[in-house]
Specification:
This protein is of the alpha+beta class. The protein contains 8 helices and 9 strands. A hairpin with a 6-residue loop joins strand 8 and strand 9. Helix 3 crosses helix 4 and helix 4 runs antiparallel to helix 5. The longest helix is centred in the middle third of the chain and has 21 residues. This is BTB domain-containing protein.
Length: 245
């Protein structure tokens, strides 16, 4: 009997962003309502190259997609730092159980971070006719929130008001303090990185509307930046159920 057997029709070879995979049709169609289910049950067109089916997506993340399809369980390696990228891929392929599993994994990580480390949140809001850069016609307000004892460790020149009272207390409750300067969010980021902090999340939002109170109607832009920082290690603290982020 020769070695050149016809491949079994249920064995699927994939080229995802230049990374090659071999799996089964049953695995790819585990969730029929997903994009992969639609692609391989014949209801959605597919593309092929010399390596098999071609999908122009993140090949490094697709391995985790396949692992989830095989077991219906999100099992990520310790120290996995690409959860945002994986969430984008799970959303693209519309694998709803995996999207939910990633959301639950995020919640678990948040609890662990609050228990074993220190956290801060920095929110910068820019309002003006051009709010993208620090300019004379934009109003900038930056707020930092976190445990009093953690904020008290930051240099005084970041703050818009004295923080001596914070340094005189061991209060672990959360507080909010305004930061000083139009570019203080970026300066603080440089400082936190130099001190071993890690950014565990960053969001941006923008909205616009017309100023109806002034004599001349003008377009007003509001842009918000929200950074979440985590310092690994530290003393154990109980996970709070009333966290600011």
């Amino acid at each position: 009997m020769g070695d050149n057997q016809t491949p079994h029709p249920d064995i699927i070879r994939l080229n995802v962003g230049g990374v090659l995979f071999t799996t089964t049709k049953a695995t790819l169609c585990r969730y029929p309502n997903s994009m992969l289910g639609a692609m391989f049950n014949g209801s959605m067109s597919t593309y092929k190259d010399e390596n098999g089916y071609f999908i122009d997506r993140n090949g490094a993340m697709f391995g985790h997609i396949l692992d989830f399809l095989r077991s219906s369980h999100l099992a990520l390696p310790e120290g996995f730092r690409h959860l945002d990228q994986l969430a984008v891929e799970a959303d693209f392929f519309q694998i709803e159980p995996m999207i939910f599993a990633i959301q639950e994994h995020r919640k678990k990580l948040t609890k662990i971070r609050h228990k074993t480390g220190q956290v801060l949140e920095v929110i910068e809001v820019r309002i003006g006719s051009t709010a993208t850069m620090p300019t004379n016609n934009s109003r900038v307000k930056t707020i930092i929130s976190g445990r009093r004892s953690v904020i008290a460790t930051l240099p005084q020149d970041f703050f818009n008001c004295p923080v001596e009272k914070l340094k005189q207390t061991s209060d672990q409750s959360f507080t909010e303090i305004e930061l000083l300067g139009s570019n203080v969010r970026l300066r603080l980021a440089d400082y936190l990185l130099s001190e071993g902090w890690q950014m565990c999340g960053s969001d941006f939002s923008s909205s616009s509307g017309y100023d109806t109170k002034s004599m001349i109607s003008s377009l007003i832009i509001e842009q918000s930046y929200r950074d979440r920082w985590f310092l690994p290690g530290g003393q154990d603290e109980p996970a709070s159920t009333n966290l600011p982020f």
